[in-house]
Every structure is written in structure tokens, then in C-alpha cells.
Amino acid sequence: MTDHIDLSDPYFLQYHDRGMKKWQGFIISEHATSVNEENERVHKIVPQKRKMTFGEIGQILEFAFNNNRQVVIQLEIKDAEGQYFDDTIGFIEGFDELGYIVNDTKVHYDEIRNVELFDFRKWYNV
Predict the structure, then answer these.
(1) How far apart are the first and last CA of the chain?
(2) Rounded distance, CA 54 to CA 108, Å?
(3) How many Å apart are CA 100 and CA 94, to the nearest integer?
(4) Do residues 95 and 87 touch, judged by C-beta distance below 8 A?
(5) Closest C-alpha to 92, from 114, 70, 108
(6) Within 13 Å of residue 35, how many CA atoms lie on the same side as its CB?
(7) Of the candidates 72, 11, 22, which has an alpha carbon nearest to the alpha carbon of residue 47?
């Protein structure tokens, strides 16, 4: 075995080095960031919204569908800790006898707890 390294080898030509001499600190900061993001996701609490009647839900969804408006839907589904999942936000793409399709997600009629029109704000009005 020789101590000579052939730099014309395709491995060395395609290898992308980050150019860091002390890479362990970089890995630790990346790991800490990912752990913090996961903790925020796990400990996020979605507040319970008012339970709406089927009539109220139908009126808002019909208006949104006819006027091409985005909706915010809270489902009556909870996770293992009893917390609500994130709201489903998007346009109503269609519907059938079982429910609506919002951004390629099927939302059944009996799973809807609350629905609102999405309050779209321009970045310069915030």
C-alpha cells in the first residue's frame, strides 16, 4: 500500500468539503437546533375552538367554495396526549357524499369541529 493519494480519482473530484477544520462544533449546533425544533413541535398546544353546528359549517364552507376563499378547519381529532392537531388550511378543491377535499386532504363532515375563513394579511399590513 502506498502513501500517495491520487487526487484525480473521481471520489476526490466530486467530494464537497464544507471547508471547516473543527466540524464537531458544527454538528453539535445542528443537533441542538433540530432537538429544539422537535421540542417546539411536541410541546405545541393548539387551542380548542368553539364546536359549530352542521348548518354553520355548511354555510361557511359553501361560501368559501363559491368564492374561492381559503378556510381554516379544526378537526375533532386529538392525539395520544389529548391535544388537537394543527388546523387544516387551504382551498376547497372538491367534495363528495363523505366530505371535502382541502389541499389534497380528505376532511369528513363529521370530523369538522370549527371552520373559519382564512384571514389573509399582506406582509406590509402586519
Answers:
(1) 66
(2) 12
(3) 6
(4) no
(5) 70
(6) 6
(7) 72
Residues of the chain above pLDDT 70, percent: 87
Query: For the chain, what is the mean pLDDT?
Result: 82
Q: Is 117 exposed, middle or buried (0-12, 13-18, 19+ CB in 10 A)?
A: middle
pLDDT tens per residue across span 35-65: 888 888 777 788 888 899 989 988 999 999 9
The residue to which cell 395520544 is assigned:
80
Helix H or strand E encompassing 73 = strand 70-75
Quote the CA–CA distance of 6 and 78 in Å, as a whole number. Answer: 59
pLDDT at 116 over 60: yes
CB 118 within 8 A of CB 102: no
Which residue type, as a one-letter code, is found at position 29?
S
Main-chain dihedrals φ then ψ at residue 60, nearest 5 degrees: -65, -45
Predicted model pTM: 0.61
- DSSP sequence for 37-60: HHHHHHT--PPPPPPPPHHHHHHH
